[in-house]
């Protein structure tokens, strides 16, 4: 989901911009572009995946004028490319949505926060827990990171959007609709989880080396 029209107080717009800029600045300080410069094949996969997500974001349901519902794919991008490249990709995707007139410029910070930063953090935390605490098993990785991680990230992103509207919304009707929308979040989680898990399973079967968070020697060769 993402915001299409502003229903926020000015201070909230400024705050979301500052948070998003801070996280993006930290991401850029890690110099993720060095991986792309050193691996031409990775460049092609990352750009192709980013373009594919841009196209998938066009398939959206306009719930109300200021809110659109769509698959996000941030968890899949995080698992395949890790957090820094996934966040850069999300910023580019949100800029593309603004450029084609889908979203407003003032909402770029809020949309990056809700669709990129929050889901990527959740996906990264889940992956770290699986990597360090759970058995080295392909199905454990697939279900915990792909299905459960995507569902949890969708819930966290949706709740962050609802909380943002409740705290900083300027339209009483928008606040009411946000509270009603929160009740339907459990119904939206399975779709993101299913698509993410399905695509991740295909990658793990045919191209496990493409998934940066997956160690094929550890999860496959040693079993």
UniProtKB/TrEMBL annotation:
It is a multi-pass membrane protein. The chain crosses the membrane at residues 7-28, 71-93, 105-127, 139-167, 187-206. Keywords: Cell membrane, Membrane, Transmembrane, Transmembrane helix, Transport. It comes from the Bacteria. It is found in: Cell membrane. Pfam families: CbiM. InterPro entries: CbiM/NikMN. The keyword Transmembrane applies. This is Energy-coupling factor ABC transporter permease. It comes from Vreelandella zhaodongensis (Halomonas zhaodongensis).
């Amino acid at each position: 989901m993402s915001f299409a029209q502003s229903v926020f107080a000015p201070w909230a717009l400024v705050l979301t911009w500052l948070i998003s800029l801070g996280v993006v600045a930290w991401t850029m300080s890690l110099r993720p572009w060095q991986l792309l410069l050193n691996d031409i094949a990775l460049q092609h996969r990352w750009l192709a995946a980013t373009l594919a997500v841009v196209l998938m974001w066009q398939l959206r349901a306009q719930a109300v004028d200021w809110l659109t519902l769509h698959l996000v794919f941030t968890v899949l991008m995080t698992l395949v490319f890790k957090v820094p490249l996934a966040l850069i990709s999300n910023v580019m995707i949100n800029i593309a949505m603004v450029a084609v007139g889908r979203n407003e410029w003032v909402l770029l910070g809020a949309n990056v926060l809700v669709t990129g930063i929050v889901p990527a953090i959740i996906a990264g935390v889940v992956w770290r827990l699986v990597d360090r605490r759970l058995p080295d098993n392909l199905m454990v990785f697939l279900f915990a990171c792909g299905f459960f991680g995507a569902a949890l990230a969708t819930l966290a992103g949706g709740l962050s959007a609802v909380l943002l509207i409740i705290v900083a919304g300027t339209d009483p009707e928008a606040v009411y609709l946000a509270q009603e929308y929160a009740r339907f979040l459990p119904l939206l989680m399975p779709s993101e989880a299913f698509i993410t898990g399905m695509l991740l399973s295909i990658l793990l079967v045919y191209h496990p080396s493409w998934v940066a968070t997956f160690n094929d020697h550890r999860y496959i060769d040693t079993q």
